[in-house]
Amino acid sequence: MADRPIEPRKTVCPYCGVGCGITYDASSESAIGWNGPVNTRREICPKGATAWEIVDHEERLTEPLVRESGELVPTSWETALDRITSSFERIVSESGPDSVGFFASSNCTNEENYVLQKLARAIGTNNVDNCARLCHSSTVAAMRERFGAGAMTNTLEDLREADAYLVAGANPAEQHPIIFRSYLLPAIQNGTTLIHVDPRENDTTRKATHHLPVRPGYDIPLINAAAKVILEEELTDGAFLADRVTGLDAFTAFLEEVDVDENARLAGVEPATLRDAARAYADAERAAIFTGMGMSQHHCGTDNVHALLNLALLTGNVGRRGTGVNPLRGQNNVQGAGDVGALPNVLPGYRDVIDADAREDVAGVWGFEPPDRPGLTEVEMTHEFGESIHGAVIFGENPAVTEPNANRVRDQLDRLDCLVVLDLFLTETAERADVVLPGSAWAEKGGTVTNTDRQVMRMRPNTEPPGEARLDLAVLCDLGQRLTDVSFDDAEPASVFEEIRRVLPQYAGMSYEGIGTGSQRWPFPDGVDEGIGVLHTDQFESGRKTAELRAIDHVDPVDPVSDEELVLTTGRVIQQFNSGALTRRSGTLVRMRGDDVLQIHPDDAERRGIADESTVRVANGRGEVTVEADVTPAIRRGTVFATFHYADPLVNRLTGDTLDPVAKIPEYKHSAVTVSVTPS
Ligand SMILES: Nc1nc2c(c(=O)[nH]1)N[C@H]1C(S)=C(S)[C@@H](COP(=O)(O)OP(=O)(O)OC[C@H]3O[C@@H](n4cnc5c(=O)[nH]c(N)nc54)[C@H](O)[C@@H]3O)O[C@H]1N2
Ligand SMILES: Nc1nc2c(c(=O)[nH]1)N[C@H]1C(S)=C(S)[C@@H](COP(=O)(O)OP(=O)(O)OC[C@H]3O[C@@H](n4cnc5c(=O)[nH]c(N)nc54)[C@H](O)[C@@H]3O)O[C@H]1N2
Ligand code: SF4
Ligand SMILES: [Mo]
User: Fold this and answer.
1) Cβ contacts of residue 40 below 8 Å, gap of 6+?
2) pLDDT tens-digit map of 115-172
3) How many CB atoms lie within 10 A of CB 559?
4) Which protein residue's CA is at the shortest distance from atom 19 of ligand 2?
5) Nearest-5° angle of CA 592, CA 295, CA 200?
């Protein structure tokens, strides 16, 4: 690929939601940091530092592929696009617009996602979603309902001022490394208390003052007990409760039934540790909550977050610097993919598709009215593949590895009449496609991405796509031109951003030029000088002055666990990213070990005759995997942990596809499994 022209320009890391500034560096022939809005001292983590290895990788897709007699063979763009057009036209004319579905990409820009959701809606379906569904859809649902905005309430900058951090079900030391090292750790070293709620001890726990090793799936009893301690010991913020909160009496009555010791035991933590942690949070002048997948990815994910919101309201920890409830978002643009409407129930700016005024407003810009019936979510769509959905476009996602109940997902993908994948590599999903389109990597594209603390930043090309590969935005616009009657002939990021501004109230005051090499933060209404940092200061984003305390009952996990079984929970490590489609291809990252093992407690291992580093079989009714055992007291008894970064072992064969009833997020963090020595 050395024949591509390269010009180093300031862009944004393609991996996590921190949004560090990176650029190509000619002297080291790799990516380095620049002093971006978040990584102001140019700091980056191992993934950012190896990001160029992906751009220049020999396995990059460089020409379109189509399936002929069962095999994927190289073809021209014209043939590939013709195949998609004729298949989709036939499917839609035979079975209607809801017989096609679109997976947008949280790894890709606002402009690309905006075009894809508009394309779906122009065809006449709201079947468009992105993998925000799999991360924080539950968090967004709870926060939108109670506070009026599903995003970090605070900014990284002001969170440095907190006196206590409550990190629940997140491991920022590994998953948001630059936030942890450059914002949280300096405060912790300066005396800020860190409370970590996580069934495992990991790099975040190692800096914690209090560790609550919760049993997976039992966060609600733990949080309710903490709320009871706060109320009993009069650690509430009376003035805030009087002014900004409703429902105190009903909530107090609900807590009367809560027994702190009993709930602590149910949650698997020491009552005294729980009481100390509750006091540490409530006593702090400013206390900030961070929340992650350990909370959101449960069949009760929305309720988990509702329970957390109670803590912030009781103690007046919202609407001020150094406080709030802060979901640490996943990919570099998962916040933005939702903002621009790549979701089945809302239009750009989170306006409901069932709201006639919202539809009319976008119709004023689009020239057509979007359909009024909410579409299906990602997991619901895969379940309909081969049933009511026959054609799908999967843009920058790898569901064959990352969706729950992977054996079922793979069967369903194979049942589609026409599966189109737009990606950089022949992923496990692309291998099942009818048409594979070669897209553009981070270093090849322009456009904007929105990071975890609502900062919209610009990407800039450092080089061109390799071979016949094309810019994602151009490909999506081409598909729009061919599949709809609407004009998609303008594939310039700057002009698409202009259109986004016109339909997305939160971005209305921004400008592409104005963002420059800095950032602009939403909400940024038209006519103001800058976006708003701390949300909910005088009133909530809901438009109300108050938010409600809410009684949240514990619900048992869906998978009952017998005496012989253990609970499998899943997650991440610093050096791998999601399906591993990119990071498994980095020679540097795969040399960092420990990312494809099963953590098991020494007592559980001994009972099963399992030795450290031996190969074990992990199984349940959905499937099985073989994996190396890492016998370690870092994981609580009765629980085992594995990452989902590999296609082998494919850990998602074991996860279940029960969905949270509100947000439709799958249960990734609690599956019953047997673990046994593999027969030699
Ligand atoms: N290095 C790296 N960084 C990433 C990613 C990556 O793949 N690799 N992915 C990005 C994406 S898309 C996302 S969404 C974020 C996710 O970032 P995190 O939310 O930090 O991700 P996880 O590791 O899935 O889960 C966090 C923790 O939840 C704990 N946990 C498991 N079950 C429970 C439970 O029942 N209750 C509680 N309280 N905790 C539990 C796990 O032990 C784990 O340490 O990371 C982003 N950043
Ligand atoms: N067991 C278990 N499973 C999980 C989770 C868990 O905690 N446990 N977490 C869930 C979560 S939070 C998430 S977000 C999902 C992630 O699930 P996915 O989104 O499926 O995972 P990624 O590996 O991020 O997939 C991104 C794909 O986009 C491609 N890509 C990257 N950049 C570009 C680009 O610029 N252009 C194009 N065209 N393609 C690009 C990559 O090659 C890759 O194939 O996994 C979910 N699955
Ligand atoms: S912290 Fe996240 S955004 Fe920053 S370099 Fe690492 S992966 Fe990239
Ligand atoms: Mo995610």
Assistant:
1) 182
2) 999 999 999 999 999 999 999 999 999 999 999 999 999 999 999 999 999 999 999 9
3) 21
4) 397
5) 45
b/e per residue 323-344 (b: at least 16 CB within 10 A): bbbbbbbbbbbbbbbbbbbbbb
Q: Which atom of ligand 3 approaches the CA of 14 most closely?
A: 8
What CATH number has the domain spanning 566-677?
2.40.40.20
Same fold, 65-133+332-488 and 566-677: no
Taking phi first (over 0 means left), then psi (-120 to 50 degrees means alpha), and beta for anything else, what does residue 465 get?
beta
Q: Residues lining ligand 1, CB < 6 A?
A: 16, 135, 168-171, 174-175, 197-200, 202, 214, 216-217, 219, 292-295, 328, 330-331, 569, 571-572, 574, 576-578, 641, 669
Residue 298 reports pLDDT greater than 60: yes
Name the residue with the closest Cα to ligand 1, atom 38.
Answer: 169
User: pLDDT band for position 591 (50/70/90)?
Assistant: confident
Q: Does ligand 2 come within 6 angstroms of the Cβ of 422?
A: yes
Ligand nearest to the CA of 34: 3
CA distances from 290 to 157, 184, 196, 305, 312 (A): 14, 11, 10, 11, 11
Q: Where would I find the H helices in 177-300? A: 177-179, 185-189, 219-232, 238-244, 248-256, 260-267, 271-283, 293-296
Cα separation, 637 vs 619, in Å, equals 18
Q: If you measure from the C-alpha of residue 80 to the centroid of ligand 2, how many angstroms do you get, rounded to a whole number?
A: 24
**579 with 428: CB under 8 angstroms?**
yes
Q: Are 116 and 104 in contact (CB under 8 A)?
A: yes
Determine the length of the chain: 680
Burial call 236-263: b when 16+ CB within 10 Å, e when fewer = bbeebbeebbbbbeebeebbeebebeeb
Q: Which residues contact 415 (CB under 8 A, 6 or more apart)?
A: 385, 386
User: For ligand 3, is residue 328 a contact (CB within 6 Å)?
Assistant: no
Contact 645, 597 (CB under 8 A): no
Q: In what order do the strands lie in the sheet with 287-291?
A: 210-212, 193-197, 164-168, 287-291, 325-327
- Identify the nearest ligand to the CA of 625 by its number: 2
Q: Which of 578, 653, 659, 671 gets mutated to test ligand 2 (max ligand atoms within 8 A of its CB)?
A: 578
What average pLDDT does the structure give for the chain? 97
Tell which residue, 503, 446, 450, has the closest CA to residue 472. 446
Taking the C-alpha atoms of residue 325 and residue 176, their distance in angstroms, rounded to an integer, is: 16
Judge whether 347 and 353 are in contact, CB under 8 Å.
yes
**The model's pTM:** 0.98
What residues have CB less than 8 Å from 486, skipping those under 6 apart?
A: 118, 122, 366, 367, 368, 480
Any residues with CB less than 8 A from the CB of 488 and at least 6 apart, and which? 115, 118, 119, 476, 477, 478, 479, 480, 481
The values of phi and psi at residue 379, to 5°, are -70, -40
> CATH number of 65-133+332-488: 3.40.50.740, 1.10.3520.10, 3.40.50.2300, 3.40.50.2000?
3.40.50.740
How is the chain split into domains, by residue range?
Answer: 65-133+332-488, 137-327, 566-677
Mutate to test the pocket of ligand 2, among 298, 393, 423, 654 (most ligand atoms within 8 A of CB): 423
Would you say residue 243 has pLDDT above 80? yes
We find that the CATH architecture of domain 137-327 is 3-Layer(aba) Sandwich (3.40)
655 CA: nearest ligand 2 atom: 1
